[in-house]
Amino acid sequence: xxxxxxxxxxxxxxxxxxxxxxxxxxxxxxxxxxxxxxxxxxxxxxxxxxxxxxxxxxxxxxxxxxxxxxxxxxxxxxxxxxxxxxxxxxxxxxxxxxxxxxxxxxxxxxxxxxxxxxxxxxxxxxxxxxxxxxxxxxxxxxxxxxxxxxxxxxxxxxxxxxxxxxxxxxxxxxxxxxxxxxxxxxxxxxxxxxxxxxxxxxxxxxxxxxxxxxxxxxxxxxxxxxxxxxxxxxxxxxxxxxxxxxxxxxxxxxxxxxxxxxxxxxxxxxxxxxxxxxxxxxxxxxxxxxxxxxxxxxxxxxxxxxxxxxxxxxxxxxxxxxxxxxxxxxxxxxxxxxxxxxxxxxxxxxxxxxxxxxxxxxxxxxxxxxxxxxxxxxxxxxxxxxxxxxxxxxxxxxxxxxxxxxxxxxxxxxxxxxxxxxxxxxxxxxxxxxxxxxxxxxxxxxxxxxxxxxxxxxxxxxxxxxxxxxxxxxxxxxxxxxxxxxxxxxxxxxxxxxxxxxxxxxxxxxxx
Length: 512
Fold this sequence. Notes:
This protein is of the alpha+beta class. It has 19 helices and twelve strands. α10 (233-240) packs across α12 (269-282) and α12 packs antiparallel against α13.
C-alpha cells in the first residue's frame, strides 16, 4: 500500500524510518523555491525590511520564539495548564506552566516521537535553560517527566504523550499562523515547513538534496501548492523575482508609502510590505479578495488586531489603505507587475518542471495546472472550474506543434506532457545526475538527467535579461538525439541555451 505522511519537516530534520513512502512534499517545495531565489538580493531586501521596522533588524529566531510563546500563553493556555497539572512537580502550577511554555517556544520542530527525536527535546530544554536560568531547577525536573530518558514509547507518561501533541500545535499556530505574517522580507519563503531566514540554496545544494531524495525517498510526494500553502506556486514564482530586484522593490514600497501618506496611511511597515508582495504576486485581483487577505494577514500577525480582540480603528485604516492601493495607487503596482511579469512566468514554469520531474511522486493541487494566482485559504480553496480546465486542455492538445502563446496554456502544456512522459516511459525517471552548463551565463541554468529524461530550466531570469541573454552558454547533452517534449524539436551535442530555450524558458528532453 502506498502511504505517505502529512509530516512537516523543518530544514535539516530527517523523516523517521517509518513504514511509509515519505511525506506529502512540503520539503521539496522549499528546496525548489530557494533554488530560484537570488542570494544577491538578501542584503537589499533586509535593509528595506529593517527600515520598515524603524531601523531595528528582524531576527527570525527571536520573532518565532515570541510568537510561539504567545500562543502557549493565550490560545493554548488550557493545554499548557493541563500539562503543568499532570506533571506532578513540587512547584506552583503557574511556575511549571511557565517552564513548559518556554520549552514549547524553544522547540525547533513540530514534534518528537519518543524515543525517536529525543535530541530535539534535549535541545529545547537546554535552550529554555539558557533563556530562563531562573527556571533552571524546574526545567531539569521536567526532563524526565517529558520523556527525555525513556527507551520505549510504552514508558511515556501522560504528560510526555500530551506534550508531543501540544508542541505541534504551538509550532503551527505560532509560526505558520503568526510569525509568517510578521517576518515579511521575502514572503515567497514563508511557507509551511520552511525557515524564512534561509534565503536561498545554490544549485549544488539542490542537486545534493535531490540525489539524496533519489537514494532515500524516491517515492515521496513532491508539492508546490496545497490546501495549506500561504500563497499558490505562481504567486510565489512572481514574488521570488523581488530577490533579483531589491532596489526596484524598495523604490516601489517608498512610492506607495508616500502615496498612502497623502491618502490612507498604514502605520505598520512590515504589514504593508507583505500586502504589496501579495498584490503584486496575485495581480490582477479584485478589491474583495485583497480586503479579505489583508484583514486575515493583520489578524494572524496579531500585532494591531486579532481574531479574538479586533481593533476596529486599525482595521478601518487597513481597509482604506487597500482601497487606495487598488484605486489611485494601482498604476504604480501595475508598472511594477509589468516589470517582473516575464521573469515570474519563467519562474513558474521552472518550478513546475522541476517538481514534476525531480525524484519523487508529483502532487498537482487542483487547479494549479493553470496560472491559479491564489492567496492563503480560503482563497486557495475556491471551487475549480473543471469545465474551463477541460476546454484549456483540449485547446492545448489541438495545437499542431510547439508551445501555445498564453502563460496558462504553456503551464498546462508542460504539466500534461511531463506527466504523460512519466506515465508512458517510467524507465526514463529511474536515477538522478546533475548536468552543468558551460559559459558566462552558466549560473542561470539548472538541469538534471533522471536516466533518459532531462529537465532544463532558467534560473534568475531577470538577471539573465539584464545581462543580455545567454550569449555563448551551452549545455552538454549525453550522447544520442534528444527530443523536447514541449516543442517537439530535436537536439544533440552541445546546443546553445539561446537556441534550446528560445520558445520557452524550460525544456523537457527525452531520448528517442
